[in-house]
Amino acid sequence: MRWNRMLNKLWRYYLKFGTLVVASRYDKQLQQWTGAMRQQQKNGTLSIERKKCLDEIGFNWEPQISNFKERYKQLIEFQKKYGHTDVTYRNGEFIRLGEWVREQRAYYKQKVLAPYKIKMLNDISFTWNFKRDEYRYKTELERSLALLNNKSHER
Q1: What 8-state DSSP symbol labels residue 139?
Q2: Is 62 left (phi over 0), alpha (psi -120 to 50) or beta?
């Protein structure tokens, strides 16, 4: 009975947020339940019927991998647009991406970032040692150059 209620709650969450990866800040109980389902699947203790129900609604069995790939794609788009990977977590438009970038740097520094993730990030010239002062200098320089460029075109 409780399982069906939680599955229904998960489906309502999906309809509201468009994802089956539950953020604990929205519903800690549901997030813990989905984590328990992943753990049971990993341990081989989740029944075939329950796994089938979750598969049918598109349950994400490995959200960390999916999240990394999604954010990685966003970082590539950011890099194409701005020419660098120095996303700050204080940038209003890119808060989530900036937080993710900061986490990757922290994991790398702690030596817990998977080698394939390091390679993927290195492949796009990811900046591992981000210094806020250097970023400010670069952005101010870019703004100044853009202003100069615009004024030279006005003449």
Answers
A1: H
A2: beta
State yes or no: pLDDT of 121 exceeds 70.
yes
**Spatial separation of the C-alpha atoms in residues 59 and 35, rounded to whole Å:** 11
Mean pLDDT of all residues in 106-118: 89
C-alpha triplet 48, 65, 21: angle, nearest 5° = 65
Q: How much of the chain exceeds pLDDT 90, in percent?
A: 40
Contact between 10 and 35 (Cβ < 8 Å):
no
Structure tokens given for 25: 């800040």
pLDDT at residue number 133:
42
> CA angle at residue 78 from 154 to 31, to 5 degrees?
145
Alpha helices in 18-61 (DSSP H): 28-43, 48-56
